């Protein structure tokens, strides 16, 4: 079974990006049927950029 995680900062909010480390994948919690998968290097880079605020508006 795939374990999807979202940021603790999201609280009970449903407008979240969820991450599945075992799949190297992300999805939108509002539309969980669409999954974006990455190779390991790109997934690690994506997570690093997200943690560093690169995608903040």
TrEMBL record:
Pfam families: DUF397. Residues 3-51 form the DUF397 domain. This is DUF397 domain-containing protein.
């Amino acid at each position: 079974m795939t374990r999807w995680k979202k940021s603790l900062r999201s609280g009970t909010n449903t407008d979240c990006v969820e991450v599945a480390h075992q799949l190297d994948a992300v999805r939108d919690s509002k539309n969980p049927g669409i999954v974006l998968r990455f190779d390991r290097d790109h997934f690690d880079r994506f997570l690093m950029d997200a943690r560093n605020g690169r995608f903040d508006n």
